[in-house]
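fwd from M.: "can u put these together and see what the complex looks like"

so here's what she sent:
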Amino acid sequence: MKIVALGGGTGLSTLLRGLKLFSDVDVTAVVTVTDEGGSSGIIREELGVLPPGDVRNNIVALAENESLMAQIMNYRFNEGQTFKNHSLGNLIIAALTKITGSFAMAVEKVSDTLAVKGTVLPVTEDTIRLVATMESGEEVMGETQIVKRRSKIVDLHLDSVAHPFPKVIEAISKCDVIVLGPGSLYTSIIPNLMVNGVKEAMKGKPTILIANLMTQPGETNGFSLKDHIITVERYLGYSLDRVISNSEIIPYDILQRYNVEGSEQVLTMVGDEKVVSFPMVKSEVDPNDGKEKVRHDPIKLAASVRKIAKELIGD
Amino acid sequence: MKIVALGGGTGLSTLLRGLKLFSDVDVTAVVTVTDEGGSSGIIREELGVLPPGDVRNNIVALAENESLMAQIMNYRFNEGQTFKNHSLGNLIIAALTKITGSFAMAVEKVSDTLAVKGTVLPVTEDTIRLVATMESGEEVMGETQIVKRRSKIVDLHLDSVAHPFPKVIEAISKCDVIVLGPGSLYTSIIPNLMVNGVKEAMKGKPTILIANLMTQPGETNGFSLKDHIITVERYLGYSLDRVISNSEIIPYDILQRYNVEGSEQVLTMVGDEKVVSFPMVKSEVDPNDGKEKVRHDPIKLAASVRKIAKELIGD
């Protein structure tokens, strides 16, 4: 079963970590390139290459965890004023982009070296930025600034026309099922749909949205599951076939901490037959701040996706 | 034939590039770790790992040139204020030192990944600095400062006791011939001899010095070949068996430019039967400044070393 999964960094890589364990699933991850923050943002600005962080996360998710190259690709410097917080894998992808002259080729070379199970593709090789119209009418440029505003996004577009990386269109046209997410609605999922030809190629393919576990401050404040679905369908231009949501209640103490930061659980809903729900929450300590975070459990998520995908294609 | 070659970065790597082409030569490069300049110096200072540049140069010299990993190890960023002039290979060795907890292990892992022909070893895993007493009596600390003084070095020592990396002593004790250089006299060759137990292990092994082509401003101003030999023998504590020097006259226009910078050709000498000379100069454009530089021709140099080594061991 050929699955194309579109998204960004962390969320999509969680799905891939699960999917790679199923030998009957052949996955292609199509990854946004609109990140402007952190190590990726500095590399983008100073070296003029696409932000490598999201593709790196997904490549490593599909690699054997223990290999030396995977450790190198995952290494982040944690000292020294020059290198602190920079990801070595990001620098390797940037250098390979300069050596080969192509970001997509760099991604392919790193994937080959890591012997990944599946394929990771940047959605486009064009340098693009997100532009959001906020509720106030203000136009905000760039992913980092948009999220910082912490206000409602009423419209999102790209600052220039983006051409799809050809293998993305090819992978979509050959796949059995398309999966959107999990990932930030406006900064990971929707940007992929705005690259020329992507949603047109997707049309007619069974499409599943993985709903987020929690709302994201600055992107989806107060969004219900229905709001998520409506928003994705608005940018997609047609209806989703299935929405996979989480049925498990998140522990009260974790939820309380999220609430303080403006983030609420996205509860599943009844009365819409395309929504299916499964328990698939896993809490883990975030190494960045030592706090317990809720994440999709990679195996439960992948098993749910595989089950629904099989139903959709009548397998 | 087992050869142990001791030296630093550029010069030693030239010898290795030649030696790897001879299938009957098994080479171990023992490399200084006293560099404090450039990318290596910043990594040393900010990340607290040994300077990786010299070992990196030698690993790459022994690798297949065309491999992707060799290109990655050799890549140097040439833009962006954060990364400009930093070597990606240096950063990889630094990260692997953090991951494995050992600089020597990092060197071994990178060597394995590049499938190098031979072995590269740091002479010590101790963090050491050079201390020089200049002609004026002033004590100068650190390789960069010592060379900057551009005055005569009357004595050189390490700032603290350095223990040899155990495999260095093992390689020396098992080898047939030892080669010193080519390389900077005070900052590449002699520092190896000051690590505890190294010259003691070398004693009794046939030892060849590769003489430099040119004197180095700040290290060997005005040094004749005889001065080079006397200086090395002083730190070694016993006599060299052979000195391989260049017999070819360097083109006048190049020589003139070197002379302006205080660098003169080291001419070969007669009357000392341990001195043997061969034509082995190659001029090449330095990518850093676009100027034509004189270098040892790797193949001519390696062939000369192999010939003399065979004579010494009676092969």
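replying to her w this: Chain A has a mean pLDDT of 95.
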